[in-house]
Amino acid sequence: NELRPLSKIIRDAGLKLSFHNHNRELVRIGKQTWLDLLYTTMTEEELGAELDTYWIQAGGGDPADWIMRYKSRVWIIHLKDMRVTVDGKQQFAEVGEGNLNWKRIREAINNSTAEFLAVEQDDCYDRNPFESLRISYKNLTEWGYK
C-alpha cells in the first residue's frame, strides 16, 4: 500500500513503476512467495514486473513459468544465464551459454507483454566484458532478437 502513492506520481509523469527481483524475493510466506504477494497486492497498472532470469532460477523458480505467470504485467526482462562450477558454485554466464532453458524462456517472452530485454551480466570473471557482451548478442540474434 505504501507504493501506491509513488506509483501514481510515476504514472502521472508518463512512466512505469516496476519491481526487479533477486533470489531472496522467492522466499515463501505461507503458500506464496514474497514476490507473488507483492504482485497480487498491487494492480498491473500500479506495479510492473521486471523479472530477472538468473535470480528467478537462483531462488529455485523456473524463469519461463514466472514470465508466463505475470505475462501481462512484465514489460522488461533482465536476461542473465547461470552456470554451475565443478565445486557446485553458481556463476553468471553469457546468455545462452549456461544452464537456463532458453527455448522455454523465449517462448514465454514471445507470449508476454515484454517491451524490453536487457542483457546484464553482474560478473564476467576472467573474460573481457565486451567479449561477454558479444557472445550474448550473438546468441540473441541467432534466436531472432535484435
User: What composes the largest sheet?
Assistant: 4 strands, parallel
Distance between the termini: 38 Å
Briefly note the CATH topology name: TIM Barrel
Helix content: 25-40%
Mean pLDDT: 97
Cα-atom Rg, whole angstroms? 16 Å
β-sheet strand percentage: 15-25%
Strand-pairing-aware structural class:
alpha/beta
Tell me the strand order in the biggest sheet: 1-4-5-8
CATH class: Alpha Beta
Instruction: Provide the domain count.
Output: 1
- Give the strand tally: 8
State the gist of this model.
This protein is an alpha/beta fold and 146 residues long.
SSE diagram, text form:
Blueprint: H1 3-12, E1 18-20, E2 28-29, E3 32-33, H2 34-41, E4 48-52, H3 53-58, H4 63-69, E5 74-79, E6 81-84, E7 90-93, H5 102-110, E8 116-119, H6 129-142
Parallel strand pairs: 1-4, 4-5, 5-8
Antiparallel strand pairs: 2-3, 6-7
Helix pairs in contact: 4-5
Q: How does this model look, in words?
A:
The structure is a single chain. The chain is α/β, with parallel strands linked by helices and 146 residues long. The chain has a single domain (3-142), classed as Divalent-metal-dependent TIM barrel enzymes (TIM Barrel). Helices cover 37% and strands 21% of the residues. It has helices spanning 3-12, 34-41, 53-58, 63-69, 102-110, 129-142, and strands at residues 18-20, 28-29, 32-33, 48-52, 74-79, 81-84, 90-93, 116-119. The strands form three sheets. Strands 1-4-5-8 form a four-stranded parallel β-sheet. It has a two-stranded antiparallel ribbon with strand order 2-3. Strands 6-7 form a two-stranded antiparallel ribbon. The protein is globular and about 45 Å long.
